[in-house]
Specification:
single chain; two-stranded antiparallel ribbon
Length: 417
């Protein structure tokens, strides 16, 4: 029997079209639903590790560290110590004093509070933090602001942190809204103090990614060393100074993409990183959804067009090539300050050849199964009579004869048929 098989044209293969549309829909919907979020996070963290980012030597961190706690005493300290530090930094002509400690209460009868308010007023360059919090369980979220006596002569900025689903801090909200009030981020407020005529940022209303320092570190001094004069005024002059808790027994450290072996970064370090990104204009913005969908569609349509026309080895080469192309394109966009979430597309490029070949194999098996049924049906309908000269003694002789003829399926009919 001769079997004729006409291979369907890849241009008119509706099954391939349905496969392509399904994969394309999944990848583009993933840009909105972020189903491959864990893959995207892992890719972003690895990208960030290989992009060299060095610390700005104009930024200085004054640490409230274990040494300071052991010499000055348990936290919280009398506010006269904070007042003294602000005075020292002001006299040294520091550019900005970003003091990441919330002084939410004020006692007019407390001399320490009076000294701190006076130091902030005379400095004229102090930035204080605020945050949004639920102070009492099941109560509405409220603003936690510095006391009026402290904030009236200080710049203000929020220090709210919005962690990703894996508990890592990758982005910052430069402007955060509470009720009808919009607050700049603590680092953004510090930057605007230094750069009052800086051009407006395009993405202040949305979250932007932080290019954390991964080479070297910011220069830092202990709180007690600055307070006691061990640090010279020349080392402090015209520098942006962030003061905050770094003691491991205190503070609120957070996990960031560049932390080693689970070591977390204190808030003061994170704020310094955000300030540096603002000063260097290197904050990373998410690539727009429309451009992401356009890029996904072009790459996938090209891959789906080529796959039916290539051998398995050629498909493997195409998959590796397209994977490297997407990886390099994402890396290039990141260097230009845009993050493209490419996890869905990379997974699709890896699985499309496998799905296509599995589908093609399934179709081939279905074809052979159909042909086998037709063959069995045609064999079952064939009937012939043995010639009279063939003398058989019994059914066993008949079976032996038919086996020689490669006939293993038969049925005996009455002699009159």
């Amino acid at each position: 029997m001769t079997v004729h098989y006409n291979k369907p044209s890849p241009f008119l293969d509706w099954q391939l079209i349905l496969l392509g549309l399904g994969i394309l829909l999944f990848v583009n919907m993933n840009q909105l639903g972020r189903w491959t979020q864990a893959v995207d996070y892992s890719l972003y963290d690895n990208y960030l590790q290989i992009i060299p980012t060095s610390a700005n030597d104009q930024i200085l961190i004054v640490e409230i560290d274990e040494q300071s706690l052991s010499l000055i005493g348990d936290w919280p300290w009398p506010r006269s110590y904070h007042a003294q530090l602000i005075e020292v930094l002001t006299q040294a002509d520091a550019g900005v004093i970003a003091y990441n400690v919330v002084f939410s209460s004020y006692d007019s009868d407390d001399e320490n509070d009076q000294l701190l308010a006076q130091a902030i007023e005379e400095s004229g360059r102090t930035i204080l933090p605020l945050y949004f919090d639920r102070l009492i369980k099941q109560q509405a979220i409220s603003e936690v602001l510095p006391a009026e006596s402290f904030r009236q002569y200080a710049g203000l900025g929020h220090v709210n942190s919005y962690l990703d689903s894996d508990g890592t801090l990758r982005s910052v909200r430069l402007m955060d809204r509470f009720s009808e009030t919009q607050w700049p981020h603590f680092s953004f407020s510090s930057f605007l103090f230094n750069q009052p005529y800086a051009k407006p940022l395009d993405s202040t209303s949305s979250d932007v990614y932080i290019p954390f320092v991964n080479q070297g570190d910011f220069e830092r001094f202990s709180f007690v060393d600055v307070l006691t004069g061990l640090v010279s005024p020349q080392q402090l002059a015209q520098r942006t100074i962030f003061i905050g808790m770094t003691a491991t027994s205190m503070g609120d450290p957070l996990l960031t993409p560049v932390d080693d072996h689970g070591r977390q970064s204190p808030a003061v370090d994170i704020n310094a990183n955000i300030y540096q990104a603002l000063a260097n204009d290197s904050l990373i913005k998410p690539l727009s959804t429309s451009l992401s969908i356009l890029f996904n569609s072009i790459v996938l349509l090209v891959a789906l067009y080529l796959i039916p026309r290539l051998s398995v080895i050629q498909q493997l080469v195409m998959t590796v090539t397209s994977f490297i192309f997407v990886w390099m394109a994402s890396y290039g966009l990141l260097l230009q300050g845009y993050w493209y979430s490419n996890g869905g597309l990379l997974l699709a490029l890896l699985t499309v050849p496998f799905i296509w070949n599995l589908w093609r194999l399934s179709r081939l098996l279905n074809y052979f199964r159909h042909q086998l049924k037709r063959l069995r049906k045609s064999q079952g309908a064939e009937m012939f009579h043995l010639p009279e000269y063939v003398q058989l003694e019994n059914e066993a002789d008949l079976r032996s004869l038919l086996s020689l003829m490669d006939i293993d399926r038969f049925q005996l009919l009455p002699a009159n048929q």
